[in-house]
Design brief:
- By secondary structure, the chain is an alpha/beta fold.
- It folds into 3 domains: 104 residues, 4-hydroxy-3-methylbut-2-enyl diphosphate reductase, catalytic domain (Cobalt-precorrin-4 Transmethylase, domain 1), CATH 3.40.1010; 90 residues, Rossmann fold (3-Layer(aba) Sandwich); 88 residues, 4-hydroxy-3-methylbut-2-enyl diphosphate reductase, catalytic domain (Cobalt-precorrin-4 Transmethylase, domain 1).
- The chain is 37% helix and 16% strand.
- It is built from 10 helices and 12 strands.
- The protein has a 5-stranded parallel beta sheet with strand order 10-9-11-1-12, sandwiched between helices. It has a 4-stranded parallel beta sheet with strand order 3-2-4-5. A 3-stranded parallel beta sheet has the order 7-6-8, with helices on both faces.
- 42% of the residues are buried.
Length: 323
Amino acid sequence: MRILLANPRGFCAGVDRAIDIVERAIELFGAPIHVRHEVVHNRHVVERLRDLGAVFVDELDEVPDGATVIFSAHGVSRAVEEEADRRGLKVFDATCPLVTKVHMEVARFAREAREVFLIGHEGHPEVEGTMGRFDTSQGGRITLIESVAEAEAVEVRDPARVAFVTQTTLSVDDAAGIVAALRRRFPALASPRKEDICYATQNRQDAVKQLLEVCDVLVVVGSVTSSNSNRLRELADRAGVPGYLVDGADDLRREWFEGKQAVGVTAGASAPEVLVRQVIERLRGWGGMPPVETVGREEHVVFALPRALRPAAGERKKPATGG
């Protein structure tokens, strides 16, 4: 059985930055450091950071007054920021800059008193944070759209003053279908100045589509809570190829690979490479050939740390410890 590795896969710049922020805050200020929600959606990463001294909380009322808190990569609402300020919490914001871009678009559309469609998944922290950025005082409103059916049914007050934004980790194909349905109904629909679905989500989906042309089973390394990892596995369904989402090698089942000629392996944007290597090792133990990397789009994006956490002049930054 051949083992084909998607390229790119795994950590993106936003995830790298979020993990670095937590590690650096613990290094500079000592444990515990409180983190609102999982800093990224990966069980392995969260457990490792917890071992270092991170305390993950659901809401700010679990954080002591005056303590240090980190906002996750998924972003938060204005109400959460205001509560942290009121309670005197020291905040480091690990929101991915590409999510911040969506927040800025939502704020702009709110100032223009538009009705905004947020294409995304209900209950996802990024969606909750983005909806919480919309200021209704100017007369506009924001509505979550999860499907083409909802896009076909939504009612608006003024079809000439509508706009859309999207969650950054959506299926590119699903989002395109929903946007097309909205455009058919609302020709004046305003769009973001640049695509909202992030470069890493797009690149990883493109890489998996390439894999699915040549493999007869797909393994996606990532946690079930990770939106972008779930979207990668769903691509296998569309292609009629068995696809499995696993947290790590221990979730693999030998029967998935019986009679298969080629297995494609990828990882969601919040899954560390060490987990991919463990999956490969398990597949090699079951008779897999040495893995072959596919040719994909190179990524050179780097997001800077908050100024207060950046290494001082002459201080050597520790290498990433994703595993």
